[in-house]
Specification:
This protein has 269 residues and is of the alpha+beta class. The protein has a single domain, classed as Dihydrodipicolinate Reductase, domain 2. The chain has 7 helices and 13 strands. The strands form 3 sheets. It has a 9-stranded mixed sheet with strand order 12-11-10-9-3-8-7-4-13. The chain has a two-stranded antiparallel sheet with strand order 1-2. A hairpin with a 2-residue loop joins strand 11 and strand 12. The protein starts with 17 loop residues before the first strand and ends with a helix. 35% of the residues are buried.
């Protein structure tokens, strides 16, 4: 699915793009390959990425001053991944956003803190669909939670990284829980299932798959979903927009960028 590069405001007439709803594979970026079923994306994809900072060593590391860590911490660290996930799954770019940042503690571990602990963001996609994002590194009890929930006109989908083997699908006449099973998975995600169904995979398996893809690319292969330099540039672009919006207290347009690469395009870089 590729949405038009021309931005359409939510208040104008528009046709929501088709949204594929795969079981998120355990790879560096995954795939948008679907199993034949699609939903329509309306104006309310909802994402959250709270992470707790319970380890004293981690708190001290993140408390380093502005000169060493840069002007953003929570968004640059984890929020950039959240936006990358949204754009990859939705298949279209964020074109404008408004954000608000919060610093909860002025110092941590005896070091002054000059960047944010949490960010709340409202985004608009190319089609006019809107999304709400919450990024927090102060969520007590949350260790590495990433939740993606998308509401379509025909169905909803929810993925929670703390329950990585499951995908929830909500429908008008009932809901479904899908579980990772390489025996029934689409070919696009089957290669990320390194263990049989019922043998849990998780966070570390994603990095294992990523390293395997890197070696494959070095060997001349074209692994699907491998991040490119352009993905890093996009993260910086979004971070700058979030900080500008919070500083100036207004909506900020995002400069045009290449559309998220399809599975075929990802293998050509």
């Amino acid at each position: 699915m590729r949405a038009s590069s021309r931005r359409r405001r939510a208040s104008t007439a528009w046709s929501p793009p088709s949204l594929r709803l795969p079981l998120p594979p355990h790879g560096a970026r995954g795939t948008r390959a679907d199993r034949g079923g699609r939903a329509r994306l309306p104006a309310h994809p909802r994402l959250r990425l709270p992470a707790g900072l319970d380890a004293p060593a981690l708190r001290r590391r993140l408390a380093r001053d502005l000169r060493r860590r840069g002007p953003s911490r929570a968004f640059a660290d984890i929020g950039s991944h959240l936006c990358d996930l949204l754009e990859f799954v939705a298949g279209e770019r964020i074109v404008r956003l408004v954000s608000q940042t919060r610093r909860v503690f002025e110092e941590r571990g005896g070091h002054p803190v000059a960047n944010e602990d949490a960010v709340s963001i409202l985004v608009e996609l190319e089609s006019g669909a809107i999304g709400t994002l919450l990024v927090s590194q102060m969520a007590a009890g949350r260790k590495n939670s990433l939740t993606l929930e998308i509401h379509g006109t025909g169905a909803s989908a929810r993925f929670d990284q703390e329950r990585p083997e499951e995908l929830w699908i909500g429908q008008r006449d009932g809901s479904l829980h899908l579980f990772r099973d390489p025996g029934t998975a689409h070919a696009g995600s089957e290669r990320f299932s390194r263990t049989p169904a019922g043998h849990a995979q998780g966070y570390q398996d994603a990095f294992n798959a990523f390293v395997a893809d890197v070696y494959d690319a070095i060997d001349g292969g074209l692994p699907e979903g491998l991040p490119t330099f352009a993905d890093g540039v996009r993260a910086v672009q979004l971070t700058e927009a979030v900080l500008q919006s919070a500083r100036e207290r207004r909506w900020v347009d995002i400069a045009p960028a290449a559309a998220p690469a399809s599975s075929d395009q990802k293998g050509t870089h």
